[in-house]
Amino acid sequence: MNSATTYQQTEYAIDAKGLTKRFGEKVAVNKLDLRIPKGRIYGFLGPNGCGKSTSIRLLTGLLEATEGEINILGKPLLGHEESLKTRIGYMTQKFSLYDNLTVQENLIFVAAIYGFSGRRKQARIEELLAMYDLEKQAKQFAGSMSGGQKQRLALACATLHSPELLFLDEPTSAVDPENRREFWERLFDLCTAGTTILVSTHYMDEAERCHSLAIMEEGRKRADGSPQALMDAMPANVVEVSGSGLRQLKQTLGQHPNILSTAQIGAHLRVLVQKGIHNPVEFISQLSDGRHAQLARPSLEDVFVTCTGDRHVD
Ligand SMILES: Nc1ncnc2c1ncn2[C@@H]1O[C@H](COP(=O)(O)OP(=O)(O)OP(=O)(O)O)[C@@H](O)[C@H]1O
User: Fold this and answer.
1) Which CATH class is domain 235-297?
2) CA dist 219 → 84, 112, 182, 289, 303 (Å)
3) Which of 19, 23, 304 has most ligand 1 atoms within 8 Å of CB, for mutation?
4) What is the mean pLDDT of residues 54-71?
5) What is the structure's pLDDT at 97?
6) Which GO terms describe its molecular function (predicted)?
7) What ipTM was estimated for this complex?
8) What is the Cα–Cα distance from 23 to 14, expressed in whole angstroms?
């Protein structure tokens, strides 16, 4: 193997091909291909049951794939599970904290698992308590903390050993918007320090913060790219209609073969019109009996609608 090949291989934190997991008849993950460059935040966006957690468990080596190849941090996962464990962090969907241990004791427990002892252990725990704003809670039982505090402690535990690659499975489902916002700032701090992050979510606004993402449905990847690239490549234009009788209009427009979706957002009807339609605003205005129509900026939710469900465009 020449050095150019080696360099190319290790550029990706995750390089997986044809990843498939079956549970009996159920195909939880279906021929998933993934290439995630180092130092990026990559998202899995999809509804409950689309295979996000199973994919993460396959990529961390906790679950064995039925088919497919996985390379993590430049090494095949198969046969390197043990050595890779120290280079990977994983924050599970339900924070895996010990409720009846204090914040500090939770950190001590995780530190022991990763072989930290003496001064090194103490210094790292002090550093994490300060970094995650948990100094005042150090002696508090984890079970008595707020959702946001638990989340910060779970992140501190998952990153205690300074992993190069961090997996976060729906990390913000139990916290309020302000804590989510703050949590994402911390993720970008980690990313800037060189950590690659794979985060699963079913929140559109969260997915929009990722450098790039995969939209998943029923175990398959429906689309993949940066949020902007996904919006640019959307096979539909977005037209907003305003006026009266929008509920009735929604029914009418929803029947049209060139309309992929309609949804009411406040006082507007948001209509996704197939890209083949030459002048989408005039097209919708005519179908809407002259109600006011105008082009709107696509959102990630629009992308999601066009690449999933019955009317998705392959
Ligand atoms: N151990 C298992 N045995 C059988 N079926 C499973 C198992 N684990 C997951 N599944 C099924 O595989 C599919 C994907 O589940 P998975 O948990 O990966 O989805 P998800 O996108 O992470 O959703 P959620 O956020 O609800 O966990 C689901 O239909 C689920 O019921």
Assistant:
1) alpha beta
2) 25, 36, 30, 42, 18
3) 23
4) 96
5) 85
6) ATP binding; ATP hydrolysis activity
7) 0.96
8) 23
Residue 24 alpha carbon, nearest atom of ligand 1? 4
Q: Tell me which CATH homologous superfamily contains domain 3-226.
A: P-loop containing nucleotide triphosphate hydrolases (3.40.50.300)
Residue whose C-alpha is closest to residue 66's, from 27, 16, 14: 27
Q: Domain extents for the chain?
A: 3-226, 235-297
Long-range contacts of residues 131-138, Cβ cutoff 8 Å, at least 24 apart: 131/156, 132/156, 132/186, 134/103, 137/103, 138/102, 138/103, 138/104
In the predicted structure, residue 3 carries a pLDDT above the cut 60: no
Say how many Å lie between the CA of residue 95 and the centre of ligand 1: 18
How far is the centre of ligand 1, averaged over its atoms, from the C-alpha of 300 (Å)? 24
β-pairing, 259-265 vs 268-274, is antiparallel
**Residue 48: CB within 6 Å of ligand 1?**
yes
Residue 2 has pLDDT above 50, yes or no: no
Nearest CA to ligand 1 atom 31: 49
Q: Is 51 in the pocket of ligand 1 (CB under 6 A)?
A: yes
CA distance 117 to 124: 10
Tokens of 81: 């599970």
Same fold across 3-226 and 235-297: no
Ligand 1: residue of 20, 32, 50, 54 to mutate (most ligand atoms within 8 A of CB) is 54
